[in-house]
Amino acid sequence: MTSNPYLHVDSVWKSFDNHSVLRGISLEVLPHTATVLIGASGSGKSTLLRCINGLETVDAGSITIDGDLDVTAFNTDLDAVRRRVGIVFQSFNLFPHMKVIENIILGPTKVLKKSKAEATSFGLELLARFGLESKSEDYPDRLSGGQAQRVAIVRALAMKPEIMLFDEITSALDPMLVGEVLDAVRELRTGGLTIVMATHEMNFAREIADNVCFLKDGIVWEQGNPGALFSNASRPETQAFLSRVG
Amino acid sequence: MNTPAPGANVVYQDPLRQEQSRKKARRDALIGMASLIGFVVVTVFLVTRSSGWSSVQNTFFNGDQFVESFPTLLEAFWLNVRIFLIAEPLILLIGLLVALARTLRSPIFLPIRVIATLYVDVFRGVPTILVIFLLGFGMPALQLQGVPSDAIFWGTAALVLSYGAYVAEVFRAGIGSVHPSQTMAARSLGLSSFQTNRYVVLPQAIRNVMPPLLNDFISLQKDTALVAVLGPIEVLRRAQIDTSSNFNYTPYVGAALIFIALTIPMTRFADWMQRRSAKKRQAGGVTA
To answer: Model ipTM?
Structure first.
């Protein structure tokens, strides 16, 4: 692990209506690793992810991708950032007026200017990889929550992102359906994709993370590999949080 | 009844209950029919026996007058149809462009946003008939080179301007009805703000506002008659001429019937669409 970080978050501040959410947070993510963000609701996990792909602008600090692309600079083409950084949301946000396959090829055809045939065949390939090939012609309202969330993952993957951000992607799901979505993330982790994931699924964090970050009060309060952090947290606030979530 | 296999999709209704509810439905339909027929018979009886009925019938429902005027009314109505057919696409176009202009956020577009807002404020605030007077009599009075003096042209233009403002607001409400998370998802895929509007927001917005748009269509169909104040012989003007030449109001009733014949099917269609979208919203749930 001597490579340069793929993602470098440096002292980022962000507030909403005078309420400070991120207070100088810093974070490094190495390529081909999975970083899991844990912490109570309101600790800044979602806000951090949204800042990383430019859906929120920061108040101070910088976020650098791949050593050269500064997301936070005023003249940065954010569409270019978003082509490289995929994100999946808690609430799926599929486009309800489009079939599954149309949801998936929208970005590749309109943004990457791929042909419809090429985008469709890659889309079907991805759907098959996640066991969804039979759903390609369905509309999103015909899908279960787990299927919808996996389609949302495929939609982001279709853009061939270099890094994927997962924002509590299992929090809106029926407990029965959490497993199939986590399986999809596990599959991506195995494939070597760089991942940053905010989650409340501690067992899953323990399993896939290379680095676990406990966020509190808008900073990384404590971080480490899952073995060390989960069984041997050094700060009392981390221990308290971990004992509460079990 | 045998117990179904677990998990099997089985619908079971007690045959006795089914038979009872079928009977009740049949009885309800019969009672409704009888009540309606009774009501109509009594009403017709009372109205036709009342003392003034013969003069009412003669003035408003005169068969000879009707037969005589109806073909000319229909012919004149063709002008209303043409005004409608020309105005409607223009209204949709203006409405959509104005609604989109009002969503522009970049500072360079400030003039466009201001103009769009002013346009909507002005034309929503002024009675349609006043706009028709203003343009229909005012513009030709300018006697400018190249400005048409045709009453039909200015009447239609006034309808387009007036309705364009209403339809712009309908579209704007539709755009507002699409959840911001849809925009966020589209932008996160790298779509530009134009592409996000074009492929994600507008298709959903337009679907959401179909029922109110249809209502505005219906209203426009009727308001084509307002152009009559400028002189062109459309159906209302025609009816007015026929009426005053015979001192009989049957042509007005004929004109009303023609409007009703066109608007009732559209109203039913709009109602049906409204019910369908309400049902969809109920069934749609959270996946969207």
So the answer is: 0.90
Rg of chain B over all Cα atoms, to the nearest angstrom: 27
Structurally, chain B folds into a number of domains equal to 1
- Out of B187, B192, B203, name the one closest to residue A97 (CB): B203
Q: B29 lies in a domain?
A: no
- Rounded CA-CA distance B238/B75 in Å is 9
Structure tokens at A104: 């998936």
Q: How far is A89 from chain B (nearest CA, A)?
A: 8
B199 contacts chain A (CB < 8 A): yes
- pLDDT tens readout for residues B78-88: 999 999 999 99
> End-to-end alpha-carbon separation of chain A, Å?
30
In a domain, B184, yes or no: yes
Q: Do B287 and A107 touch (CB under 8 A)?
A: no
> Which residues in chain B have Cβ-Cβ distances shorter than 8 Å to A173?
none
List the CATH number of the domain containing B220.
Answer: 1.10.3720.10
The per-residue DSSP string of B255-273 comes to HHHHHHHHHHHHHHHHHHH
Domains of chain A (ranges; CATH) run: 7-96+163-245 (3.40.50.300)
The Cα of A87 is separated from the nearest Cα of chain B by a number of Å equal to 7
Query: Residue B121 belongs to what domain range?
Result: 80-234
CB contact under 8 A, B288 and A140: yes
Number of residues in chain B: 288
Q: What pLDDT, in 10s, does the model give residues A164-220?
A: 999 999 998 888 889 999 999 999 999 999 999 999 989 899 989 999 999 999 999
B250-284 and B210-223 are packed helices; what angle lies between their axes, rounded to 10 degrees? 170
In DSSP terms, A62 is beta-bridged to: A10
